[in-house]
Each structure stands twice: as C-alpha cells, then as structure tokens.
C-alpha cells in the first residue's frame, strides 16, 4: 500500500512534524499513520481530536488500559487524572513497547503533541531509550528483536528533546508564525546540496494556513508539498 502522503516511512524511522494550531500537522500525521495496514499502533492524543483516529483503533483514557491492550491498535486520550503526570504515564507505555520489541514485536507510535510528554531538559528513561534505539531493539529483526516507528507532532520546535530532532529522518515544517520557531526549523532542515535554501525560504515567510508543508527527506533534500487529505 502506498502512503497517502509523499512520505515513505521505513521501519524504525522517526517523522517529526512542526506546525502551529490549524496548520494541518495532525492531518498529516494521521495520514502517515493510516499507511500502516496492521500491527501494533499507539496514538497519543491529549485533545481528543476525532481526526487523530485511524480505522480499527480502540480508544481509552487510561495508560494502564493501553498497556493491557498491547500488542494492538489503541488511541490514548488521557483523562483529567493522568493529565497531571503525562510524562510518567507515557513512560509506562514506552516500557511496554520496548518489552514487546525485545520479543520481536514491532510498533508504530503517533504523538500529537510532543511537548506534553517531554521538554528540552527532561524525558523519561523508557521514552529516551525508545527514541534513541527504536530503529533496532534487541539487535533488530535479524536478531529476533523489533523496531518502533515514530511520528511526532510539535507546535514549538525549540522546546523538544534534542534526540528527537537529531534522530528524525523525516522532518516537516508547516505554518509557524513565530520567527524563532522558523529559525529552528530551518536549522534542522538544511538541504545537503543547497545549504542556505532552508534559511532563505523558511525563515522570512510563514506558510499560509492551507496545510502546505516543507519536507526534508532522508536524503536531506528540501521540497515544498501541497496539502494532503485523509483517505476516505
């Protein structure tokens, strides 16, 4: 199955999507997740956005219920109690995903606001291991291990854990009206053949709120893409 976007995620890769509210970042993340036909999928959606759901995905407000349902396909919309310690609850889910990967199960995660789960200065130990080792847990498929493909969405690129940015093989920039955020996005999205291209095109002008997006591919090429629609 071809993905409904121009992004093809290989197993274990990280896709980082940057954009403010109404920029289309959640639509793009859901479109990328929809290309995963089967297998374990965990969606983290603190806002309870119906657009975050994909087919055949259970919805729960409890991190413990997420853990119980794995391996499986589940969307976690935390309740008021768990909103008090989202990073801690998420780290318990990450621990379960890592244990599954150690047993050969592969997973996909979609986080619709990364800033709720970590900061530039703090990240849970299991989440940190997932980010840095997710492409090859327990030696990878060849050694009986698994991988964890990761899709992260964030409104403020300056305030997220550095390893997420440095390990991302796919980076998308949608509408960012804050100049400092666009400068950070441009820093992350240098085209290998045109080093000044990102700074020249991303920093001076914010994209309109029409769901268009800049994309840095794993080959470090920067391109502009038209909006995507969710598959029907």
List the helices and strands and how they pair.
Blueprint: E1 14-18, H1 25-34, E2 40-44, E3 58-60, H2 63-69, E4 73-76, H3 80-83, H4 86-102, E5 107-111, H5 125-133, E6 148-154, H6 162-167, E7 170-173, H7 179-188, H8 197-202, E8 213-216, E9 222-225
Parallel strand pairs: 1-6, 1-7, 2-4, 2-5, 3-4, 5-6
Antiparallel strand pairs: 7-8, 8-9
Helix pairs in contact: 2-4, 4-5
Per CATH, what is the topology of the domain at 14-18 and 26-171?
Answer: Rossmann fold
Q: Span from first to last CA? A: 15 Å
Helix content: 25-40%
Q: Indicate the CATH architecture of the domain at 14-18 and 26-171.
A: 3-Layer(aba) Sandwich
How many H/I helical runs?
8
Structure description:
This protein has 232 residues and is an alpha/beta fold. The chain has a domain at 14-18 and 26-171: P-loop containing nucleotide triphosphate hydrolases (Rossmann fold, 3-Layer(aba) Sandwich), CATH 3.40.50.300. Helix content is 30%, strand content 18%. The protein is built from eight helices and nine strands. Strands 3-4-2-5-6-1-7-8-9 form a nine-stranded mixed sheet, sandwiched between helices. Helix 2 (63-69) links the parallel strand 3 (58-60) and strand 4 (73-76). The longest helix is centred in the middle third of the chain and has 17 residues, at 86-102. It is globular and about 50 Å long.
Which key terms come to mind for this protein?
232 residues, alpha/beta, Rossmann fold
Summarize the structure.
By secondary structure, the chain is an alpha/beta fold. The protein has helices at residues 25-34, 63-69, 80-83, 86-102, 125-133, 162-167, 179-188, 197-202; strands at 14-18, 40-44, 58-60, 73-76, 107-111, 148-154, 170-173, 213-216, 222-225.
